[in-house]
Amino acid sequence: MNKYFHSVVLEEEKCNGCTNCLRRCPIEAIRVKDKKATIIKERCIDCGECIRVCPYHAQKSITDDLEMLNNFEFNIAIPSMPLYGQFDVGTDMDKVYQGIKDLGFDYIYDEARAADIVAEVFKEMVKDSSFQRPIISALCPAIVRLIQVRFPSLIDNIARVESPMEVAARLAKKEVIEKFGISLQKIGIFYLTQCPAKVTSIRKPIGISESHLNGAISITKLYGHIIKNAKKIQNNETFQKGSPLGVGWARVGGQSYAIGVENYIAVDGIENVINVLEEIELGKLNNLDFFEGLACTGGCVGGPLNVENPFIAKSRIRKLSKIKSKAKKINKNYVKMLQDEGYIGWTENIYPKGIMTLDDDMKVALEKIEKIKEIAGLLPGLDCGSCGSPTCTALAEDIVRGFGNLEDCVFRMKENMKKR
Fold first, then answer.
1. Is 133 left (phi over 0), alpha (psi -120 to 50) or beta?
2. Over the chain, what is the mean pLDDT?
3. pLDDT tens digits along 126-180
4. Could you tell me the pTM of the whole model?
5. With contact defined as beta carbons under 8 Å apart, do 267 and 276 qualify?
6. How many CB atoms sit inside 10 A of residue 260's CB?
7. How many Å apart are CA 44 and CA 37, to the nearest integer?
8. Rounded distance, CA 214 to CA 75, Å?
9. Neighbours of 420 (CB within 10 A)
10. Which residue segments constitute the domains of the chain, with CATH numbers given?
């Protein structure tokens, strides 16, 4: 099995070497050499920022296709919470869900139902002073991986609570087995995803050894088919859906609003999240109860695999989340039972993700670090990206690793040409 799986991949023939992705990658995982971008697998967190900014559509996300349903006798779809924002407020979501079911699924489980349950878990966590502050939500897998890479000292702050996606998969299996007596091996579960990080978290999960999901299909692939199917529907089923607060998790601030916590910060956009995580790491926000960080602008509604403008989708979700709920309140004893039976929490510890391993020999590694500092001092410090590395320090590291040389810097090259 490959050590790394990434949903975000590059179609080299479409790449024009424009450096947009190089400049915007939050963890310096991209290099541009010979007018072509490359992704450093050890660094990538699948945030999808490169997909969003590439004008040539050279970056894309690998997701599954409907053909995967043929591998199972009974298939469950888990529509993601952002799907609500892809349709006008007032849209009959039962018709939308029937349109999804008609694509070949046998059962629909709304992710927002799981969000309602996870919100109850967070409510109790916030009340418990024994949890390290601030409690960091693990909803966004890109942020969890970012913390592993850039902020390892904050790993213990991450709530060991699964995302609604994973909780929904576990509960959907439970429901289907109890209702229909289908054996576990015959059930396939697929997430209708808004972002590549979710795809990666299914293939290479964090906090659990194996995901309960069998795959993820992008909203962009299915959207047109769903609308086409929904228009034909005369008599559709009534599907059980999450509360407005559960649906609200799709936008930034939605988790905190559902939990009812007041002492929180909700941040969207990965660069903004990095800025706040730096403050948390410095100990400046230890009095904060809850931190909600989402890589995409607007939250999950801003995922690159959605179809609607994220600001329009965010507005719709905000309106939906404020509708008076007709859903039954979640029973606390039920939530406690799910926790005790392992439906909600992590089962594995997570650790820092070493991307700066310069050498297995500590002495040699320290020597290389000093060499990086020395080379960086010879560079202009402009971080222009013309060399194909995102910063001068990154170029210095690339040189020490054997992937570049000082002549890659156009300013150094000009200086040497003048000397000649």
1. beta
2. 90
3. 999 999 999 999 999 999 999 998 899 999 999 999 999 999 999 999 999 999 9
4. 0.86
5. yes
6. 11
7. 13
8. 10
9. 4
10. 1-62 (3.30.70.20), 66-340 (no CATH), 356-420 (1.10.15.40)
